[in-house]
Amino acid sequence: MAAVKRLFAAVLLMIAAAAGSVSAAPITMRDAIKKVQRETGAKVLSAETKHTGKRTVYRIKVLTHDGQVKVIEVPADD
After folding, report:
1. How many Cβ atoms are within 10 Å of 17's Cβ, its own excluded?
2. What average pLDDT score do residues 28-38 get?
3. How many CB atoms lie within 10 A of CB 3?
4. Confidence tier at 21 by pLDDT (50, 70, 90)
5. 77 and 26 Cβ atoms separated by less than 8 Å
6. Distance in angstroms (rounded) separating the CA atoms of residues 15 and 63
7. What CA–CA distance (Å, rounded) separates 32 from 19?
8. 63 within 8 A of 42, measured Cβ to Cβ
9. Domains (ranges, CATH) in the chain?
């Protein structure tokens, strides 16, 4: 349980760090899904695109190995 929390904290930190990147190229939803699968090992349940002003974020819902449902946000400019 603690290991899963640490993993998600690390993923969120990587996403936050990437969001601050100035020269990032846009990624597709498919790329964002693959990235979340690769970094968490969780099963993707759904994904959607959210637009807020000029910002686009992919919200990816996953089922963790311990049965928890989590939502991970990946900036499209990641």
Report:
1. 10
2. 96
3. 9
4. very low
5. yes
6. 19
7. 13
8. yes
9. 2-75 (3.10.450)
